[in-house]
């Protein structure tokens, strides 16, 4: 069956932002205005559990009024197919943004018009940079008290380093927000009301000043400077095309279609970031935002394909987004419930049909494609085939996990994998009744398979099952989802910090393993140097043996022993990170040496060397931002200092004051209770992992005692 729509008529986009910037509200309006649904549900109307927005359908999302997992929907606008993913804004669920951006061609970044650039926006922006995703900015909530478009645009320029192109500027703010001036089209849009079907007047730019007057000087300044602002936008955009720019400078003339093509070229290449504004809740600006998505966001493959890699992750080529090529797809999300498994995939090339067999190149397994569905949040629609550029879900794949590459068996290829953060917090998990022991193990396995930012371990000393994640809310929601989606109740222990260990200094050490009494003997000697490395460098093994002092067949056993032993350090049994292990010398016996003997020798050498290095205990340090009224700022800063934290910045964010800093995670449990009390419920905070830092020697015993309770 031939392609129904040209690839140029597709847009795969994500909605990304900090929590409460209005992503889900914007998505609801997009679905309404594109005709996908006929009734709007607002986020604040879902907390009674009786209704839900289209993309926030989980019970946990309705109760908390936040997005927890990314949800995909498809719709149409002016003949274009838009595949849209609404992503979470809470830092604990950054993994959802990560894997969504990996497979999307563009992103709409939503900003709160009052708060401007917020911490999670910065995190998401860095992820978009990492995956080379073109962006379009939408300054939302211009109807709120304290909304400041200029402050927001300044933050986008300075804190995100974006080359901003103003496509729109607001007409009014707060109660006076009535629309926006379109600097590209040269007109203003003046709404006649706040109703979802309210019409607007389209007014030439030079007539706006005679139609509107605003009480605040800042709002009026946008109106007074419209001609100047438009000229700046024209010059900046047309600079993408030398001939068009020269024509503008020489004659003052330009072609509207060429202007849009220049903005598109700049946006797709990442040289420009178009900025729009509006109020999704007041139903102003969403249709114009959709026009911007069509005009400026890339179609699949326009910004390049996906890298092909070898088993070590080195890039070997690129797969373009075309139908006429071997089928290749990337699995970016797995959902498990009592009804089965849905594996979300982005198809990069070829055609995949019902009944086809694909190779899971990552795991070396075959997968038969039984059913293919188009996903509308929690609803599905069966389809017969998918093509390059499509986002779909395969039903009941048995072996495929997040990040796996699916390929035509005759032309296997590995697609570039995603990079996931390490968890920083853990809890013990146990079943509520003995009858649930087996069910709990199965449920936990399904949750971890679906969410790569979760880890599952067994505590060797206590025998407890330990679940690791990105934050308290992340783990709490995971346990709650096991109850609602898989029917398994579990008790969650007190959260604990995921510490790390490191070598304190460079150590050279020799260990001889000798067992030669009775029967076959064992002999191996290794001399190794262990060197501390920079934070984030991981574990590096270096084989520096010359002259056959250690036979080549035993080197892999030495490397394996280093990797295994690094999982459990000598201070408190935490993972040892950021070091280089150099094998420089050794001895062997013609009869008694073996791979096992060299593994035992290496493990003992590692243990003794780490103790000799005066090892360091490392703790996760979180980036913290608190927003509250200025009256409470002193108490907040004093408390950060008491928690062994440091303040890095403070100032005004709209009508509120903010303070930013770094605080050890071990000191942050239950912080919300302090903040509510200190600010009379008016303060909010966001926290995300930033780096690991050495624990002061005088606090090691105290922290370890606290963690063992």
From TrEMBL:
<protein>
    <recommendedName>
        <fullName>Elongation factor G</fullName>
    </recommendedName>
</protein>
<dbReference type="InterPro" id="IPR031157">
    <property type="entry name" value="G_TR_CS"/>
</dbReference>
<feature type="domain" description="Tr-type G">
    <location>
        <begin position="8"/>
        <end position="302"/>
    </location>
</feature>
<keyword id="KW-0648">Protein biosynthesis</keyword>
<dbReference type="InterPro" id="IPR020568">
    <property type="entry name" value="Ribosomal_Su5_D2-typ_SF"/>
</dbReference>
<dbReference type="InterPro" id="IPR041095">
    <property type="entry name" value="EFG_II"/>
</dbReference>
<dbReference type="InterPro" id="IPR009000">
    <property type="entry name" value="Transl_B-barrel_sf"/>
</dbReference>
<dbReference type="InterPro" id="IPR009022">
    <property type="entry name" value="EFG_III"/>
</dbReference>
<dbReference type="InterPro" id="IPR004540">
    <property type="entry name" value="Transl_elong_EFG/EF2"/>
</dbReference>
<dbReference type="InterPro" id="IPR035647">
    <property type="entry name" value="EFG_III/V"/>
</dbReference>
<comment type="similarity">
    <text>Belongs to the TRAFAC class translation factor GTPase superfamily. Classic translation factor GTPase family. EF-G/EF-2 subfamily.</text>
</comment>
<dbReference type="Pfam" id="PF03764">
    <property type="entry name" value="EFG_IV"/>
</dbReference>
<feature type="binding site">
    <location>
        <begin position="17"/>
        <end position="24"/>
    </location>
    <ligand>
        <name>GTP</name>
    </ligand>
</feature>
<feature type="binding site">
    <location>
        <begin position="140"/>
        <end position="143"/>
    </location>
    <ligand>
        <name>GTP</name>
    </ligand>
</feature>
<dbReference type="InterPro" id="IPR005225">
    <property type="entry name" value="Small_GTP-bd"/>
</dbReference>
<dbReference type="Pfam" id="PF00009">
    <property type="entry name" value="GTP_EFTU"/>
</dbReference>
<dbReference type="InterPro" id="IPR035649">
    <property type="entry name" value="EFG_V"/>
</dbReference>
<keyword id="KW-0251">Elongation factor</keyword>
<dbReference type="Pfam" id="PF03144">
    <property type="entry name" value="GTP_EFTU_D2"/>
</dbReference>
<comment type="function">
    <text>Catalyzes the GTP-dependent ribosomal translocation step during translation elongation. During this step, the ribosome changes from the pre-translocational (PRE) to the post-translocational (POST) state as the newly formed A-site-bound peptidyl-tRNA and P-site-bound deacylated tRNA move to the P and E sites, respectively. Catalyzes the coordinated movement of the two tRNA molecules, the mRNA and conformational changes in the ribosome.</text>
</comment>
<keyword id="KW-0963">Cytoplasm</keyword>
<dbReference type="InterPro" id="IPR047872">
    <property type="entry name" value="EFG_IV"/>
</dbReference>
<keyword id="KW-0342">GTP-binding</keyword>
<dbReference type="GO" id="GO:0003746">
    <property type="term" value="F:translation elongation factor activity"/>
</dbReference>
<dbReference type="InterPro" id="IPR014721">
    <property type="entry name" value="Ribsml_uS5_D2-typ_fold_subgr"/>
</dbReference>
<dbReference type="InterPro" id="IPR000795">
    <property type="entry name" value="T_Tr_GTP-bd_dom"/>
</dbReference>
<feature type="binding site">
    <location>
        <begin position="86"/>
        <end position="90"/>
    </location>
    <ligand>
        <name>GTP</name>
    </ligand>
</feature>
<dbReference type="InterPro" id="IPR027417">
    <property type="entry name" value="P-loop_NTPase"/>
</dbReference>
<dbReference type="Pfam" id="PF00679">
    <property type="entry name" value="EFG_C"/>
</dbReference>
<keyword id="KW-0547">Nucleotide-binding</keyword>
<dbReference type="Pfam" id="PF14492">
    <property type="entry name" value="EFG_III"/>
</dbReference>
<dbReference type="InterPro" id="IPR000640">
    <property type="entry name" value="EFG_V-like"/>
</dbReference>
<dbReference type="InterPro" id="IPR005517">
    <property type="entry name" value="Transl_elong_EFG/EF2_IV"/>
</dbReference>
<dbReference type="InterPro" id="IPR004161">
    <property type="entry name" value="EFTu-like_2"/>
</dbReference>
